Amino acid sequence: MTTTGSAAPTPARRRGRPGHDQAAILRTAVELFNRKGYDATSMGDLAKELGLTKAAIYHHVTSKEQLLGEALDDALDELTAVVDEAMRDRAGTTAYARLREVTRRSVEVLVAHQPSVTLLLRVRGNSAVELAALERRRWLDDRLAELVAAAVAEGSLRGDVPPALVSRLLFGMVNSLVEWYRADGMFDPVTIADVISLIAFDGLARHEA
Length: 209
Known about the structure:
Elements: H1 22-36, H2 43-50, H3 54-58, H4 64-86, H5 95-112, H6 114-120, H7 128-153, H8 163-175, H9 177-180, H10 189-204
InterPro entries: DNA-bd_HTH_TetR-type_CS, Homeodomain-like_sf, HTH-type_TetR-like_transc_reg, HTH_TetR, KstR2_TetR_C, Tet_transcr_reg_TetR-rel_C_sf
Protein name: TetR/AcrR family transcriptional regulator
Organism: Streptosporangium longisporum
């Protein structure tokens, strides 16, 4: 079965002026947004954390909202690419295999971009930037649900669970890592991806009577 979906929403790119401190500014901004909350963090707070003047920060970025947008893009861009690739009906692959692959790779993306993903999961749509990020999250949910439905149609998954619910639960399991995963913890990303796949797909697999 060929699975298709609408194109991923294209994020509006927000680029700061060139400068060797731009990455450090974004990284520190994300840490502050997660610690204090985006609305409660001012550019003055960011300047103090970095040991810079606000004028120095404005040499690299135009606003706090630009920093938020770049952080949310960091969380979403790679995951969008992973889901987009999984939606391609490649010869010799099943929807079920692609669904398992996208679940595993989602763990890798979250681990690699954990601060930005943490911030993404906290946005509530209070600005145009946040609304755009939420739209992209909905796109991901919808595409994953299409892949679940394709796996059901090919007979790989049980068909008595709504695909949209399965999509939310799969992403929910992966997203829960932001609450407890630590790079120096006792579980490495490969083990976590293996266990999530085992728990999710052994329970979803279709069993013959």
